[in-house]
Amino acid sequence: MEPLLMAEHVTICYHGKPVVQDVSFRLEPGEILGVVGESGSGKSTIIKAIMGLLGGGGMVTRGDIWYKGQNMVDMSEKERRRFLGPEIGLIFQDCKAALCPIRTIGAQIYESLSEHEKITKKEAFERAGELMKKIGLEDYLRVLNSYPFELSGGMNQRVGICTAMMMKPSLLLADEPTSALDVTVQKQVVEEMKLMRKDYGTAMLLVTHNIGVVAALADQVLVLKNGKMMDYGTADRVLHHPENEYTKTLMNSVLYLRRNGNA
Amino acid sequence: MPEILLKAEHLKKIFTAGGKSFAAVDDVSFTLESGACLGIVGESGSGKSTIAQMLTRLLDVSDGRIFLQGEEITHARGKNLREVYRKMQMVFQMPQESFDPRCTLGDGIGESLRNMGISRKETRKKVEELLITCGLSPEFAGRYPHEVSGGECQRAAIARALAVEPKLLICDEATSALDVTVQKQILELLMELKEKKGLSFLMISHDLALVQAFCDRVLVLYQGKVMETGTPDEVIFHPKTEYTKLLVNSVL
């Protein structure tokens, strides 16, 4: 079977300096790949490359990124836009910052939907409402009529997930989706992401420094250090039986909560 | 009986804005014994940092009293406050922001020594010793905050706090901005200081696992109120309140 997303020996440079070197991975439909690493390891750069958000000075200099058999690296801006949204969704660390501060949530969700399909505002709100109820935004009418600053961090994050999932993408790119949240809220968001995968069969590329989140969600794990691949394999193998020296150091540095006898 | 180093009695902080008042910290009391380590955990808005700011006199208390080695410091000012800072120092979350960007790390670390009237030469020697204690080479004294990594800068911030040979370090999310491997190194450094110098710690953190690994006692805060106190294992293994249960169960 053709993989949903495949990176082949990808090298990404900023101003001629490589920040990601020779990274390869493949993601099957419905699978969750966790990309872990410390600051400066190039985690977010990979997501930016897929989205075409590398900006000035950033470039994929070697290798290819294939999405459903199409090369995302060579794609024109216009072509890429067909994919971003309906096919590939994105959630950021700080969804509040990604939302427009002077327009209501509802208006922004409607805008992103109407960009890709013919839909009335009422229909858009109904569809958003259904999804919001699923991910714990019971009071969705208030949310739709609110401005981002009127909502808490956790609620904004859910709005981000909702906006990304509205078009039922096959692939969700999540850049530190829970890192700015309190642990109680983080747990809820992780549960909601699991639900999204179950209900819509969405594959996810989950970039995070939080090993706990990766352990809770990912099927496969890729460990990056200074842009180089250190380890790549099933979550159980990488997280619990690491062979690579760096992965061992990383896993040993994580503080786990001891609960009643068992570690 | 070990000496009681720090004691907070019924601390309260009320913020008022737009005619409404809000209790960020509501009736919080605790004691910290010499050589011990107390952790304060809670989520955003629970009042953790407000407590640290009141203890270090960066914020005035609305009500309640603070004692350091039996002396009341609730309203310490001027000369008295300088004496307080010789016993109690702080380490903040963002090391880069807690140093003056235009001064070298050496200047920052040595400033308090110079203020105490120690000669330039002595200060330089002391700064080098402090850097070595904190696992940095003496050449870091000549570097600027933006020229070092986050972990190195946090080590320098700890060196600066140690310059006055305090008895108590208040760490407000001191490792939260650091990578896990660096966090581990910094915690090992703090642990070593605790054993070698008999330093006491007040660790403010959102990370229950960190508090469990490092502290003797923990205080769980929620919306400004103390939910429970006890040893970390007591609180984590047998949480008494619903909130603590939720918090413990949420940790992945």
CATH topology of chain A: Rossmann fold
Strand order in the largest sheet of chain A: 6-7-8-3-9-10
Structural class of chain A: alpha/beta
CATH class of chain A: Alpha Beta
Q: Say what oligomer this is.
A: heterodimer
Instruction: Please give the domain count of chain B.
Output: 1
Low-confidence stretches of chain A: none
Shape label of chain B: globular
Number of helices of chain A: 11
Overall geometric form of chain A:
globular
Give the biggest sheet of chain A.
Answer: 6 strands, mixed
Annotation field: number of helices of chain B: 10
Mean pLDDT of chain B: 93
Secondary-structure element sequence of chain B? Answer: EEEHEEHEHHHHEHEHEEHH
Radius of gyration of chain A: 19 Å
What distinguishing features does this structure have?
heterodimer; A: about 260 residues; alpha/beta; Rossmann fold; four-stranded antiparallel beta sheet; 11 helices; B: alpha/beta; six-stranded mixed beta sheet; 10 helices; about 40% helix; globular
What is the fold's blueprint, element by element?
The complex is a heterodimer of chains A (263) and B (252).
Chain A lengths: L4 E10 L2 E11 L4 E5 L6 H9 L6 E10 L2 E2 L5 H7 L4 E4 L3 H4 L6 H10 L6 H14 L5 H5 L8 H13 L5 E5 L7 H18 L2 E6 L2 H7 L2 E6 L2 E7 H6 L4 H9 L10
Parallel strand pairs in A: 3-8, 3-9, 6-7, 7-8
Antiparallel strand pairs in A: 1-2, 1-4, 4-5, 9-10
Helix pairs in contact in A: 4-5, 7-8
Chain B lengths: L3 E14 L2 E14 L3 E5 L6 H8 L7 E6 L2 E2 L5 H10 E4 L3 H4 L6 H11 L4 H14 L16 H13 L5 E5 L7 H18 L2 E6 L2 H7 L2 E6 L2 E6 L1 H6 L4 H9 L2
Parallel strand pairs in B: 3-8, 3-9, 6-7, 7-8
Antiparallel strand pairs in B: 1-2, 1-4, 4-5, 9-10
